[in-house]
Amino acid sequence: MHIWVDADACPGVIKEILYRVAERTRLPLTLVANQWLKTPPYPGIRSVQVAKGFDVADNHIAENVQAGDLVITADIPLAAAVIDKGALALNPRGELYSKENIRQALDMRNFMDVLRGSGVETGGPPPFSQADRQAFANQLDRLLARR
């Protein structure tokens, strides 16, 4: 299992959890972003800087992910792409996307996009909380235990 992180929008506290997990489990961890990222000097952790642009980091992950890998992302289309390749997708708030729930998540995302496009103010996600951090850590632990 390789852990991939859609790192541009990933909260720092989640990255810190992932650094500790990579060192503890010796799983490779790759953070992909369109900016330079400082990572710990552990050999299994690396960052990849891709060109700036819409979905460039997402495309890099989708092209390189393998079946059985884990992708950390809040981007639902990326989650759908990696699930189609047999990988797992976990968002930073602890929601595990699967073949059973990704279609509904995509439909909701597209519906909200249409609303925003028609001028409806939908607001953004709530601030990242301690409960979100804990939900992520718990779900990650469950996934790693099944590995």
Task: Describe the overall structure.
This protein is α/β, with parallel strands linked by helices and 147 residues long. It has 5 helices and 6 strands. Strands 3-2-1-4-5-6 form a 6-stranded mixed beta sheet, with helices on both faces. Strand 5 and strand 6 form a beta hairpin. Helix 3 packs antiparallel against helix 4. The longest helix has 17 residues. It is globular. The termini are close together.
Q: Summarize this, please?
A:
With 147 residues, this protein is α/β, with parallel strands linked by helices. It is built from 5 helices and 6 strands, in the order E-H-E-E-H-E-H-E-E-H-H.
State the main characteristics.
single chain, 147 residues, alpha/beta, six-stranded mixed sheet, 15% strand, globular
Secondary structure layout plus pairing:
Layout: E1 3-6, H1 12-25, E2 29-33, E3 45-49, H2 56-64, E4 70-72, H3 76-84, E5 88-90, E6 96-97, H4 102-117, H5 130-146
Parallel strand pairs: 1-2, 1-4, 2-3, 4-5
Antiparallel strand pairs: 5-6
